[in-house]
């Protein structure tokens, strides 16, 4: 089911803004790093333990159906709602769906509370997220020169304007492919971009014929060293002629295009850089600019240059949205270019935020619920908790002593799966303090004296003497 790009995929080029992906978003999924996908068989059935996912078979199969619907583009205008108790794997399921869709499909996770900002309107945050989830695959056939650099000789000439110094009048670049070699005589401005990309003899590069943009693909593998750890990427010698037509593909999102166009196009001098630092508060992209971007994009699509790739918006803790956001969400879902929407919540019946009388299932108003397919996640049995704990211990590189797994499983059954998982790291620290590399039962025992799980804590504060404040009024 993997949709990863094949090795023959065309190389992306650098004529457009780089696709965004802030590091803050990646750090949030670290506790799910063992989840590699939904782990379904070819027929869409969930075997008990696959791709890091344990149990939760019904929900996984349901999500598999949704993935198929998304892939065949039959899910737009609808939403998937994952509902279930805390720590039952809703966020994990959403991530697994994103893995199944492949890297080329934009996946934008946000948490319901992210819409509340003093600088940007809530609806603005939502529509920006939706725009970021609509990908655009731009295909261009370009005339390029591609090959391994065999020669790089700048030719200097006297500067005609001043008596001193010399300027580069042109540069000779030799390129080699499997089929042949070619020597190019290039403009000094191209020499500048060559210097910028730090290209040296032995690199594989391509140069766009009509723009002169230079792109370093990697180092030719003829120069590969025998070190095991290196930051260099080695690529084979390009096939075909040096001068050829090549299809280049670039993936961007509508959100990228919006921000790229909204940023004031300042110069490269220090003052405008400083200015943009001071003004780095989030600026709103105006509706007018969006329409302008849409118009250009539509033109590209009509010409067959670009293709729209609808992605996925994942809103975790959706009950944190308020009634205004929900109505806006309805409107967004019905817009002609809507991404797939996945929502997750751990609330049962609760008040819809922003109202004081509408109580609804999952804290989501009925009109939005009506547009949702709802998938419920089940709580885990003791064996399943044990399995997940074992998987996480392997991922975190922790060794468990005898009976520790059993003990953690019963903790997990009493409290929640997440509590059991959360005990792992502190337990490993206690084990380290005791000079062991393996977690033993006594570490877990000590932890239970040090920390409370949610349920015990709740019981403690619910006692008649007023809990922690010792009965003070
Ligand atoms: N079936 C499963 N197999 C493997 N790991 C799981 C499974 N279910 C949950 N986990 C792991 O358990 C932890 C808690 O799950 P997750 O964060 O997805 O819960 P959640 O349903 O989103 O909870 P909340 O409602 O509190 O947001 C995560 O580290 C997740 O990767
Ligand atoms: Mg969650």
Automatic annotation (TrEMBL):
Its EC number is 3.6.4.12. Coiled coil: none annotated. Belongs to the RuvB family. It is found in: Nucleus. Keywords: Activator, ATP-binding, Chromatin regulator, DNA damage, DNA repair, Helicase, Hydrolase, Nucleotide-binding, Nucleus, Transcription, Transcription regulation. Residues 1-28 are annotated as: Disordered. It comes from the Eukaryota. The keyword Nucleus applies. DNA helicase which participates in several chromatin remodeling complexes, including the SWR1 and the INO80 complexes. The SWR1 complex mediates the ATP-dependent exchange of histone H2A for the H2A variant HZT1 leading to transcriptional regulation of selected genes by chromatin remodeling. The INO80 complex remodels chromatin by shifting nucleosomes and is involved in DNA repair. Also involved in pre-rRNA processing. DNA helicase participates in several chromatin remodeling complexes, including the SWR1 and the INO80 complexes. PANTHER family: RUVB-RELATED REPTIN AND PONTIN. One of its GO terms (cellular component) is nucleus. InterPro entries: AAA+_ATPase, P-loop_NTPase, RuvB-like, RuvB-like_C, RuvBL1/2_DNA/RNA_bd_dom, TIP49_P-loop. Residues 76-379 form the AAA+ ATPase domain. This is RuvB-like helicase. The keyword Transcription regulation applies. GO terms for biological process: chromatin organization; DNA repair.
